[in-house]
Amino acid sequence: MRFDPPLEEGRLLRRYKRFLADIETASGELLTIHCANTGSMLNCMSAGARVWFSRSNDPKRKLPGTWEIGETPHGRLAMINTGRANALVEEALRAGVIAELIGFSHLKREVPYGQERSRIDFRLDFPTGLAFVEVKSVTLGFAGNRVAAFPDSRTERGSKHLRELANLARAGTRAVQLYCVNLTDVDAVRPAEEIDPAYAAALREAAGAGVEVLAYGAAISAQEVRLIKRLDVLL
């Protein structure tokens, strides 16, 4: 996923009201931009840290740009715009980067399914049958530790998705939980049991039911973000 034009750099002043961030650009311009991240962004931001944002020329937009990438307190880069995760995964799927999911003939996004009226991020059609793929964007990291974690705040919705996947797997349908790890210098991902023990339990139950749990890590820069390698999953 290339940024065209390349992202602009600034410094974070503060994030507030969940979806707003005040920044100062490299030229000294003060801007309020959109923060497209519904999580807590724990360990993902600090005042004065470098940020990279996309600028919009749409006169109908209330805010002039969107926060895309941030420098974490531990010196990593994180793609904090969670709205990019599915497009990033789709690009990787079509390019054959995700080895476990090569060979599908058709891809469809946002397909209704399940007993709890959910929508799956991707339904892939293989010669052997369907595969349902749920994507979660991971940005939570820790100092001196190359293991990322999900979620960064409690997520009943995330647990619901795992229940839906587990039901599919028990019925004989291929079900995949894919963690898109949008954080540099990471080797593995784990459930953040200290933040949401119910989600961690649901993940282990889903894996036990036959859900495939995969994680892929990203290379991140102001020019592009792309998935490049499989990471370990520590259940």
Care to describe what's here?
With 235 residues, this protein is α/β, with parallel strands linked by helices. It has two domains: 67 residues, OB fold (Dihydrolipoamide Acetyltransferase, E2P); 152 residues, Trna Endonuclease, Chain: A, domain 1 (3-Layer(aba) Sandwich). It has three helices and 16 strands. Helix 2 runs parallel beside helix 3. The chain is globular, with a radius of gyration of 18 Å. The protein starts with 7 loop residues before the first strand and ends with a strand.
Topology:
Blueprint: E1 8-16, E2 20-25, E3 30-35, E4 50-55, E5 65-71, E6 77-79, H1 85-95, E7 106-113, E8 118-126, E9 129-138, E10 140-142, E11 145-150, H2 156-170, E12 174-181, E13 188-191, H3 197-209, E14 212-220, E15 225-230, E16 232-233
Parallel strand pairs: 3-5, 9-12, 11-13, 12-14, 13-16
Antiparallel strand pairs: 1-2, 1-4, 2-3, 4-5, 5-6, 7-8, 8-9, 10-11, 14-15
